[in-house]
User: Fold these one by one.
Assistant:
Number 1:
Amino acid sequence: MRLQNTLRNEIFISGLGLHTGLNINMRLRPAPCNTGVVFIRTDKGNVRIKASVSSVSDTTFATTLASEGVKIGTVEHLLASFAGLGIDNVLVEIDGPEVPIMDGSSLHFVSRIMEAGISKQEKVVSYLKILAPIVVMEGHSQIAVTPYDGTRITYRLFYTHPAFGEQKMGIDISAMKFVNELAPARTFGFLRDVEMLKSRGLAQGGSLDNAIVLGEKEVINGGKLRFEDEFVRHKILDAVGDISLIGLPIYGHFIANKSGHTLNVKLLKKILLYREAWEIVTPSVVKSTTSEFAAQV
């Protein structure tokens, strides 16, 4: 495994909230060992919201966390960046109710983290090792995790749309693969749903600059997709962020069919419920560190 990591330097990021449309300022700060990821709402008396399964308050169109009645939404792309790069401990000071959407992917967050640097700490990272399969099914959607020596996500996505039908991808999650194959993949939605979302107070900051938008027959954004299968890659990116809410890296193979934030979180809750299906492992020998990767990129 590896040692715990935090940021080497602070990072300031400003941008629009996808659903609120508000301009939001966010500062990422280094944190001590065993802190985890903690959001601090500076506009709400510095209420602290731990990035954990127990903090999840809503999974409608995004993952939302809450504490003391204070919320922070659309956290999945930032959490995926931390998990993908192996950032274990960080304070996220933010002056609004939603993480900025940027371009709809994790690319901006990853780039800024790499610029700021990653600092390894003195404690070893423990991980949760899956010992037996765990499955959650809901309608036509399913997600499962099975034993695996590492972290792997296999995802199948299917829509009856002329622009794309079925997309499938399986990937072992590592820092290098996350940066190159998942981080640039943007969120997507359908033009037909825009009015419905706006009527519900959602997607107020949505635009062709921060999402792939699908019309009746084609992608209506200018330019090409970043990947031919960008849609399924983004779903995996979302899953990386959601899965990180367990609080430890998970050694297991996640197999998903049309899963989203709701089912992802339900699986995490079921994992915690079935204590006999996993164990916590704390390695005594550190084999590699993400900070070594960071120095090479």
Note: The longest strand covers residues 151-161.
Number 2:
Amino acid sequence: MPSGESSLTIESFKKRLRSKRQLAVDDFSKRHPQASDWLLSAGITVGNIRSSLTKLAATGMIAGSLLAFSPPLTSADLSLTDSAISLIAASDLRNRLAKSIKELLPDKISDLSKLDEQSISVKVREILGVDAKFELEDQRLNHQYGWMGAEQHLMRFPGDSVPDMAPKTGAWGYFAKSRNDFNDESALREKYYVAVQTLYLPEWNKDYPVLKEWYKYRKVLVVNPNSGRSVVAVIADAGPANWTGKQFGGSPEVMEHLEYVTGKRKGPVILMFVDDPQNKIKLGPVEKKYD
């Protein structure tokens, strides 16, 4: 083939590729305008996302592992873009939360001032969109910032048997009366549960019937202040004992998300009540901001 024809064919092919690529980028922008705006504000070009992510990773803005997750973007396949955006958004959310909270915490674990508590609540609401409070309906735990240790799985219904399960039920008994009554809600409650020291509350023995009902499956937000990782859980057990040096306990899944699963399997956390009367906040890791 003459060199002129070869050159013309290659140029024509390049133009077609550029055209298809631009169509794909335009289509993405139309389908996901908010994501497109967010990427642009972060300095990421949708049509050249891999090189943009490489630059961001070099400056520490995103995890390096994201690059392995994101193969070269082509005009024919933008299927990984949503996943990449989700990972970036979750990382950004955690970083902002950790940075905002760190400025308000004492150097060592200790009681927080009421002003710092209020400031943390505001930051959590602004960044996560979760209305979380250290005091709710006149109820307040003895600790709000403390050590959380790993707990075992709890018996979900009579006859239940799973690996790493405690020999007894939690402080509020079974999550369901029988296997037939066990549902998705019960499963999530056991999967994402925490233990708090209700037994040391000043009014616990006096107002036990009322307080036990109030705290049963009460929704809470648990935050790792060092990483910004946060998870919504329910109170389903009492403890740990004071002599352990820990103030809270977390299910295997809670501890895994907080990244406290190695070594002594414990770490510092902030624990707050979630004010969610309409039950809109889901149990589990908080990976994006709630509206």
Note: The chain has a mean pLDDT of 84.
Number 3:
Amino acid sequence: MKEQLSRVTGQLLLVYNMYPTIDIFGHTIGTYTICAAIGILLCAVVGYLLIRKKDGVCIDDLIVTAVFIVVGMVLGGHVIFAITNTTKIIALFQNMGKYSFIDFVQILFGSYLGGMVFYGGVLGGLLALHLVCKHSQFGHPDVMYDMYAVCIPLFHVFGRIGCFLGGCCYGVECKLGFTVHGNTLNPGINDVNRFPVQLVEAACNLIIFIVLLTLHRKKKFEHRLLVVYFFIYPVVRFILEFFRGDEIRGFLFGLSTSQIISIILLISALVITCIDLRKARLQE
């Protein structure tokens, strides 16, 4: 990365060459894939350390659960991404006669089904975890939900770093920010100074991870850390969405898809909390 000081505006601009892919031993690998893999491995280690002394949970359970969660995250992320492109997909099928079969498949799976939405991954992973806990012999399945809550922001840290390196989920044009050169996947963002919203969100997720990990270690909000997460992150995401510059997210009523999901998750957390408080009062 190279720093440049603009003599005209007097502002510090960070200019760097984009590396959406890296060649390793003759194989081209996306930088996002590498970052995501690092995040998954770290989450596996942290998850094991969190539940290794819990009754009714063994290392085999954790491995199986982790595999199901990853599959659920991938499927959920693609499903929500496809939903955000519903109008484009319908239009593509209506005009499929204009494309060759190869072009049609490339557009459908490359552009409209190929991406992933974070919230879709979270919900898909949560559904997979629920199914595993429901059909397993876990003594205390709630500990798995707490583990999942702690690991989500940790993975998201590396996911957003991968977004920054890959050039997706970029920020709005900004006088003070980063100027990208050499992005072949999103050439439209080249030579435009943008707010580094991906790195800001990575930093926010790191803070959320530290908070949830601290609560877990102090045994605060046991079996409700996922609710705590849905109180914090949706607020952060709702605000940061205003600093996003990409239009691929989908919009409804002036809000992005992620903002709408943030509202739903925050309301869900409030409802669950109210139910818990009511149950506590009845027990007293």
Note: Residues 257-283 form the longest helix (27 residues).
Number 4:
Amino acid sequence: MEEVENTTAGDISGPSTQRQARLFALLYSADEVSERNTRIYDEMLGQSPHIRQPNFTVIGTDDLQRLFGGYDREFFRGRLAEMLHEDGAHPMGFRLSRRLTSAAGQTMRWTRPIQRGGKPATEYRYEITVSTTLLYNTFQHLERRVTVGGLACRDRLEALQRIFEHELLHLAEFLGWGKSNCRAGNFHALSRRIFAHEGAYHDLVTPREQAGVAFGIVVGDMVRFEFEGKQHVGRVNRITRRATVLVEDPAGRPYSDGRRYRTIYVPLPMLTKV
């Protein structure tokens, strides 16, 4: 344990070169990464009340908390929790989102100036969000290679682990540097040293891809559906969790083709191609 003399939580909170050095001191071989990830994988299957199989269908925010504990222990030597405590931000927030459809995860940092002991200080807050939409779309109807962080995933739990690792790297950068960018060299260096990642991007099954395979519907298709007790015909303009369908309507918004359209959000199973 490191010793700090005559230091209060307010004095050591926030990004610093000391934190950066502690994070860059973390280094694991590919074999070590595999062993540590396997322990976390087995721990999730053995301890989670929701994740009872690799291609699980239910997950809770307590599972994200459990993952955080496992990764902080196995890969960060408890340093993430220590830094969060120093920032007065422990426990941090975890969230699951069905609305997050363009990114597999998201890590947020908020700061607010406050007074502590009569002196100016900063209040910190952190939150990691994981997209359940992308997780559940993957390893369902479409059989193809799935990669996260440049690494192939065999099942949904492995995909969750790679997503969470990526978000923990964002958290580590926020804690050490005060900013984070997965396109920058610093992020890539940390990802290789700590998790042996081979990239920073994810190739999960998106709602648009899932719609094409499971329902045969793509953006631009004309579709028929029932809404508010009436039959409608329109064109698919966007696909997220639902399809955004444009239906011609004199009272609707004008579009570049000179026509007016009403926007209706329709669950994909309710659509029939015309």
Note: Confidence is low (pLDDT under 50) at residues 1-11.
